[in-house]
């Protein structure tokens, strides 16, 4: 073959030939990644730390006989999916009837013969002998049930193993019932049930559409004239009877949605109510006891949630009746409670414990009379909720108004001491001034107070004498003015939130008075029925509307409509008396507490709310408008 090729000439040999060499595809037979890292690499510090930890682990295992140092390369196998099919598992129940003499014979056989042998049974054709009286007595002695005994767990005298297993089962079941996971699951289930029960009413309260159940259609039934008459009679029986003083077709009217009540609060009287400042679904209610058979009932402070109107979320049991409650704004989890014996306590509603976080038992300045009202008062109204500074103010039947400061314990100092004032009757001319008899106490019992909505240093204080004092927290002269108009104890005073120069007061003398700050005589007097006025509240959305609780009736007054008659007078409860009222924060709903221990949630229908701009049309506020 070489001979057949032509020889290259010299010119061809001198010719330049270019040869290009390329790399073929690399075939990897084994890939072992490097175990070395440069000291200048970014992960060098992390690798050195891991090596140090591994060296310490190896050093700790040198003395162990189960440790051997060698190189191992583990290869993870591929995951496989394997399906298995079997026949359908069927379950069946079987039962066996055992007579007392069968148990007696088997027990005798187990005691006389080895456990491996069995007592020979009678042939199929032979009948069994009935048990004798002696066998019955033996069976009873061994806890074996007979026909006349009730079925119970069988225990044998010769063995304690079944008894121990029964005790273990009881302990196991008790542990399940007291477990935290079960308690949490029960709370979730309770929430679901409450939502299903109260969903339509809660939707009305929250002003969201009501979910209606779908209508199940069925085959039309042929109705006769008798069926139509029966349906009309049923509708007439189910129709509610209208109130004698108020017709639903005329003006505003009230509708009861639900009531916060349970067996725990039954027999107590609702003394005060307060919404949580941050959570609008949380309501605190104070319950005071009553004197029954010369025994004083203990008080309660309950936190109710809209998610469960049938049982309170927190229950704080107090040794004495609760007379006042209020939530803090800076710390919404703190609930202040005033009691009938003059003590003050602060509870943490986040804690499930019943004990108070702080109380005034160790304070030397604690009240000697009932704490009729307490409130957290903001000091800096312009700050945010987290930075707000508050002071806890109380007024008591011992004639003192105190401010409490919270440290390791509760302690207070007097803001004001309310002194008794003599009557201002004019004496006839020429009559000598006779020395008046000294009163039993120089201090008048304080009943209520309210701070000015714009100025935190100005407040009103109502007394048992029927006088109202306008006071200042700063300055030499604490009392700025005295308002005399009531003939009985003043139960409530309330500044108008929109027209801040006017305020309302109610008393046991059956009257409600409207005052102006600059006038010491009342502008208007509201008296509709002869009944004690327990509580009054201004409507949050209007400066002209307020509500009053008068024994068994509740009244709604609209000053833009009439100053002589209320626009609504409704008998709220058939039994007991109304003791407290409170408006909802976000809707037109009214909460009424009574002496039977329940708080009813009522919806206000067809209440024409006047515009708040009408107040500003009057240069001197509500007093000039009237």
UniProtKB/TrEMBL annotation:
Question: PANTHER family, per this entry?
Answer: DYNEIN AXONEMAL INTERMEDIATE CHAIN 4, DYNEIN INTERMEDIATE CHAIN
Region: Disordered, residue numbers: 105-140, 218-248
> Where mainly located?
cytoplasm
The source's domain of life comes to Eukaryota
Q: Where is the composition biased (Acidic residues)?
A: 224-240
State any single GO MF term: dynein heavy chain binding
Q: Which UniProt keywords apply?
A: Cell projection, Cilium, Cytoplasm, Cytoskeleton, Flagellum, Repeat, WD repeat
Q: Protein name, please?
A: Dynein axonemal intermediate chain 4
Positions in coiled-coil regions = none
- WD repeat boundaries on the chain: 483-525, 526-560
GO annotation, cellular component aspect = axonemal dynein complex; dynein axonemal particle
Positions with biased composition (Basic and acidic residues): 110-131
């Amino acid at each position: 073959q070489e001979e057949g090729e032509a020889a290259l000439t010299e010119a061809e040999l001198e010719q330049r030939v270019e040869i290009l060499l390329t790399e073929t595809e690399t075939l990897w037979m084994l890939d072992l990644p490097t175990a070395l890292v440069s000291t200048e690499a970014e992960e060098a510090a992390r690798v050195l730390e891991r090596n140090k930890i591994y060296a310490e682990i190896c050093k700790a295992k040198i003395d162990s006989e189960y440790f051997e140092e060698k190189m191992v390369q583990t290869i993870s196998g591929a995951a496989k999916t394997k399906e298995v099919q079997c026949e359908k598992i069927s379950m069946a129940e079987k039962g066996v009837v055992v007579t007392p003499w069968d148990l007696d014979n088997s027990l005798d056989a187990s005691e006389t013969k080895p456990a491996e042998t069995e007592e020979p049974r009678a042939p199929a054709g032979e009948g069994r002998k009935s048990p004798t009286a002696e066998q019955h007595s033996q069976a009873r002695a061994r806890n074996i049930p007979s026909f006349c005994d009730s079925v119970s767990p069988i225990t044998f005298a010769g063995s304690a193993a079944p008894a121990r297993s029964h005790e273990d089962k009881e302990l196991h079941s008790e542990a399940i019932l007291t477990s935290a996971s079960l308690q949490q699951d029960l709370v979730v289930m309770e929430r679901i049930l409450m939502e299903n029960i109260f969903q339509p009413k809660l939707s009305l309260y929250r002003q969201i559409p009501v979910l209606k159940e779908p209508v199940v259609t069925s085959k039309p039934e042929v109705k006769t004239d008798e069926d139509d008459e029966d349906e009309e009679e049923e509708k007439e029986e189910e129709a509610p009877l209208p109130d004698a003083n108020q017709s639903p077709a005329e003006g505003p009217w009230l509708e009861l949605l639900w009531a916060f009540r349970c067996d725990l609060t039954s027999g107590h009287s609702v003394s005060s109510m307060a919404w949580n400042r941050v959570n609008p679904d949380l309501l605190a209610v104070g319950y005071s006891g009553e004197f029954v058979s010369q025994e004083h009932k203990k008080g309660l402070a309950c936190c109710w949630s809209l998610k469960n109107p049938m049982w309170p979320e927190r229950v704080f049991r107090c040794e004495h009746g609760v007379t006042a409650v209020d939530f803090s704004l800076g710390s919404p989890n703190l609930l202040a409670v005033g009691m009938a014996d003059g003590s003050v306590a602060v509870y943490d509603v986040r804690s499930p414990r019943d004990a108070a976080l702080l109380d005034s038992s160790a304070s030397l300045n604690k009240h000697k009379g009932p704490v009729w009202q307490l409130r957290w008062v903001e000091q800096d109204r312009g700050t945010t909720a987290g930075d707000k500074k508050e002071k806890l103010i109380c007024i008591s039947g011992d004639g003192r108004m105190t401010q409490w400061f919270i440290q390791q314990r509760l302690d207070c100092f007097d803001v004001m001491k309310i002194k008794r004032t003599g009557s201002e009757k004019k004496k006839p001319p020429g009559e000598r001034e006779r020395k008046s008899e000294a009163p039993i106490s120089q201090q008048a019992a304080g009943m209520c107070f309210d701070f000015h909505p714009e100025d935190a240093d100005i407040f009103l204080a109502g007394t048992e004498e029927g006088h109202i004092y306008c006071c200042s927290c700063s300055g030499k002269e604490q009392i700025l003015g005295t308002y005399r108009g009531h003939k009985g104890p003043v139960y409530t005073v309330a500044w108008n939130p929109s027209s801040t120069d006017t305020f309302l007061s109610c008393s046991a003398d059956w009257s409600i008075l409207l005052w102006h700050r600059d006038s010491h005589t009342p502008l208007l007097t509201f008296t509709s029925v002869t009944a004690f006025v327990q509580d009054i509240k201004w409507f949050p959305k209007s400066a002209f509307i307020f509500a009053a609780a008068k024994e068994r009736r509740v009244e709604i007054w609209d000053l833009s409509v009439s100053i002589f008659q209320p626009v609504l007078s409704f008998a709220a409860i058939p039994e007991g008396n109304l003791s407290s009222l409170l408006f909802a924060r976000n809707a037109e709903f009214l909460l009424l507490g009574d002496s039977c221990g329940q708080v009813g949630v009522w919806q206000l229908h067809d209440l024409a709310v006047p515009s708040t701009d009408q107040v500003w049309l009057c240069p001197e506020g509500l007093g000039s408008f009237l």
